Amino acid sequence: xxxxxxxxxxxxxxxxxxxxxxxxxxxxxxxxxxxxxxxxxxxxxxxxxxxxxxxxxxxxxxxxxxxxxxxxxxxxxxxxxxxxxxxxxxxxxxxxxxxxxxxxxxxxxxxxxxxxxxxxxxxxxxxxxxxxxxxxxxxxxxxxxxxxxxxxxxxxxxxxxxxxxxxxxxxxxxxxxxxxxxxxxxxxxxxxxxxxxxxxxxxxxxxxxxxxxxxxxxxxxxxxxxxxxxxxxxxxxxxxxxxxxxxxxxxxxxxxxxxxxxxxxxxxxxxxxxxxxxxxxxxxxxxxxxxxxxxxxxxxxxxxxxxxxxxxxxxxxxxxxxxxxxxxxxxxxxxxxxxxxxxxxxxxxxxxxxxxxxxxxxxxxxxxxxxxxxxxxxxxxxxxxxxxxxxxxxxxxxxxxxxxxxxxxxxxxxxxxxxxxxxxxxxxxxxxxxxxxxxxxxxxxxxxxxxxxxxxx
Length: 457
Hints:
Blueprint: E1 28-30, H1 31-56, H2 62-85, E2 88-90, H3 91-111, H4 124-131, H5 136-156, H6 172-251, H7 259-280, H8 297-305, E3 314-320, H9 334-350, E4 354-362, E5 365-372, H10 393-397, H11 412-422, E6 427-432, E7 444-450
């Protein structure tokens, strides 16, 4: 399956997330959730500041503390207005949002006793929220910021002015213990919450990937039924065409200018018969491919490419990393024959003068690249190649002459090739070459990568 970057959204539906490498390339954080958390924090801070002196009798710098809370109020109002334009934050935006909350709460605690304040534990709240939705490097940064803020609260906080009758003086050793406990709690919470959240994200990613794979398999199954029906329906008209072509060849004078065209028509009818026979053949027939096992990699690729060769296009096959005389790691299975054959046929059809097939073999991976010197894939369709009913053929045919083929297609060729090759454990990717990047220059490139089990395993 072609891998794409996975975009995850907190609060998004599963349909909006895309599977890929497992990393968040462009994570989107729901701004409404962070706004709600901050509203709760502002309300709690304001009520506490306005009532603590009357309830407990502790003298605090009320106006500076309320000013710090008012700044949070203004920022949250701005965030609400921004949410109307864009309801999501990037990861960097979210870490800035939560980092400000950590710093704001630290300023309040500096004015109200630091680690002597029982509410000092709330410094861990933004870190816990961030660990549940941010990437590892950002969680690490937020943990470092929280640890620095706890250190400032330990070293620089203004002492609380306790009532004379209930004077409280905490030992420096006890304050150091509180700092150590909160610092360790910050590291533990960040690590544990991140691991739990990451496990949930990995599970969701695997589920989405399975759903995508199942959908593609269903499309392939439907396409197989369509191919079987097409093979059945095409048998009769193809037979009629073959009979008519044979009659024309028999009745036509040897010096007729149409003799070559009739021979071409017969050869193409024969080729269609072979294709229809292959569609009808069971790919799982026991021992069907055994005679091809001793072939080398070059011979296997040549056998696959043979039906698609063009006299005016050079096919160059290069194999690296394989011992001379060793059996090919590419068995002539039906999936490989049809999948790789489709890709080589596409390259041959649109090449100008040359097609390069490169096979690299090593114990950990098997990479096959097919590159041509044609016009390349249209950039607008490059990311969608391998999906059904996506065609770039019309646009490319306008740029390069071909002798056989033409007309519009439904883009099923590459889709079928990709499905068949994926059944062998391959990952298929598409790209356009850069001048000088390949022996054939800037053209279309298709890479088939078996990084796990080899196709013959």
